[in-house]
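DM from R.C. (forwarded with permission)

"hey, sorry to bug you on a friday — could you get me a structure for this? deadline for the figure draft is monday and I only need the backbone to look sensible"
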Amino acid sequence: MASMDDVELRETVESILGQGIRMLDVEKKTTFKSEEVLLINGVAVPLVGADGDIIRQALLSGQVPPSDVLNSLLISAGIWRHPVRLQTELTVKQTTLNRDAITVSRNGRVVDERLKETKEEDLLRKTSTEVWRAVAGPDSTTDKRNLFQPDPRASSIPPEPTPPTPKEEDEKSAEEIPIVQFPSDVDTADEETTSPSPTPSIFGTVASELTPKDGSSRKSLPQTPKSPGSMGIEGSSTSSSSSETVDDSGSEPDNSLVFQDNNLVSGPLDALLQHLVPTAEYYPDRTYIFAFLLSSRLYIKPHALLAQVVRLCMLQQNLADQKLTKEKLGRFCPHMVQLLSEWMETFPYDFRDERVMQHVRQLTQRCVALDPSLRRDVSQMLHNLLHRLTALEKYEEFLEKINTEASAALIDTLNVCDVTEVCSSPLTLSQQLTHIELERLSFIGPEEFVQAFAKENPNVETSFKDMKKTRNLESYIQWFNRLSYFVATQVCSNVKKKQRIKVIEYWIEVARECFNIGNFNSLMAIIAGLNMSPVSRLKKTWHKVQSAKFSILEHQMDPSSNFSSYRSTLKAAMWRSAGAKDERQRIVVPFFSLLVKDLYFLNEGCANRLPNGHINFEKFWQLAKQVTEFMTWKQVTCPFEKHPKVIHYLQTGTILSENGIALSSFDCEPPENSNEKERFKALKLAAIHA
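My reply, with the result:
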C-alpha cells in the first residue's frame, strides 16, 4: 500500500505532467556548504584566499595575525573606513654656550676672578598632521603596503608655498625662467612641446601631474616601460618596471615614489634614478634634475650614476638594436642630449673624471648615429664643457700663483705698505673687494658643499675621494681669513697713533660701503679683523676713533640669536636683488661661513634614509633650495670698474702672522697688565728662537 507521501507525490506529478504519466524513480540530494568566517563587530568576514589562510593558521596556533593582513581584510570587508590621523614632529635644537673669564691681578697677585656664562638656544620645531583614509579594497595586483593614502585637504599645516592648481599650471608660460638658471640650453625650443611635466618650485612643490588622479600617495614611474629587468644601483638584478614586475618571492617590489600634498618626499634610489631618465614622451623637470644630481652623490658616485643612466637607456629603448630607427625612438635622443647638457652646465666638475667621459662618449655617439641632426648640439655641448673646465684650470693656476706670493709675504716684520697709498677711496676698495668675492664665488661648484659633508664621514666612500679634487670652497674660506689678517696688519703696522686712527676709520668706511653694496662676506671679514685681540686692545687708539658707524655695522652682524639681524638684512638684500634692473642692486655676497654652517646643520639634522629604506627626498629639496639661492648669487657679474693693481695687492699684499700682529700691537701700545706683559715676553722669546 502506497504511503500518503507517495500518493501526494503521484498526484502532484500528474497535475504537472498530465494524466497517465507515471514517475518511475525519484532521486533526492542534500548538499551542505561550510564556510569559515571571522566575526568582527557583528560582521561576518569570510576567511578566503591567501590572507584567510594566514589568519586561520595564526589563530589556530594562538598567535596574533600580521597587522597588514588584518588591515587588508578589514578594508576589503568594508569595515575600516574611518580616517587615521598621523602627526609627525621634527625638532632641531642648537645650544651655544659662551664663557668670559676675567682675572684681575695686582703686582702679580690675583685679587679678583669672575666668570660670565651666556647660553643661547635655537629651537626649530616643525609639526605636520595628515589624515590617512582607506582606499578601495586591494585586488591581486595591489601592493598591500600601499593600502592608505594621505588626504591633503585634511592637513593642519598647509604646504609652503601652496602648489598651483592644474588650471594655474596650464596658464603658466613656457618661457617662464626656472629658479636654477642655465645660460645656454642645448635645445630650448623643445621645452614647450616635449616636456610634459610643469616646473615645480625648488621649495619642494612637485608637479601636480606626478600625483595619481585617485589621490594615492605613491606613484609608479610614468617613463618606465615594461622590461624583463635591469641592473639596480648596487649592481643587483632589480625590476625596471615599477608596477607590473613581480620578484621571485611573488610579492611586488616597493619601487614607487611617495608624494605628500603633491610634493615628492621619498622613494627608493632605483625609482628616483628611473625618474631622472627621459623617454620619447617624458623629460624630468629641471628642478628635480638639479636636486637629484646635487644630493645623489651622498649615495652613489657620479660616474656610477651615469653608468646606470646609460644602462637604463640601453634596456628601455633597446639602443643595442642595429635596426633601431629615429622614428621608433621619437624624441628620446634630443631629450638625452638635453639631460647631459644640463648636467654639464650645472655640475661641470663631474666631467673631469675620465670614467664619466667614457659614458658620455658612448651615449652621445649612439644618439648621433640614430639622429645625425644632433651632431651640432653634441659638439656645442662638449665645447661649452671644455671651455668651463679650461677656465677652472686657469683659475686653479692663478690661485696657486697668488698663494705662493702671499706665503712669501707672510712675515713678522713691519715692512707693510699702507693700503691707503694703493687705494685712497674706501668706495673703490669696497668695489674691488666685491670683484674678488664674485670671482671666487663663480668657481665654487654646488656639489662642493655636499662633498664637504661627505668627506667628513669616514664610513661613506664618496666621489670626493677618487675624483680630481676641487678646492674652490676651501680657497674661498681662506680668502676670508686672509682679509681679516690683512685688516689687522694694516692697523697694527702703523706705530704712530694718528695714522692708526686714520686706517681704522678708513676700514670702517670700507665696511660701510660693502654693506651698501650687499657684500656681506667682506663686511664680516673687516669686522673680524678690527675685533682681533691685537687691534681691540689698542684702547688709546680706539678712544680717538669715530666709532659710531662701526657700532652700527657690528649690530647688523651680531652673532646673537643665530645672526638674526644679519639674516633679516640678507632677506632685504635678496628682495632688492630679485626685482632689481640695475646690476649694482643685484649683488648679494653672503657671509659664506654662516651659509656653510646652515647647510651643515641641515645635512646633520635630517636623516638621509627613512626607516623604510627610502631616500629622504624632502631633505634633497631643502638642500637644493639653499644651494639654488647661492647659484643665483654667484651668477651676478660685477658691474664696477676693475683696478687690477688694487685687486692684486689685496690678494698678495704683505700680512703679518698672528705673532707678528701681536708684537706690532705691543709696539703701538705697551702691555698694560701682567697677562699682556707675560704674553709680550713669550712672543719676544719666540721671535728670538725663530
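R.C.: lifesaver. The longest strand covers residues 109-134.
me: no worries. Residues 38-81 form one domain.
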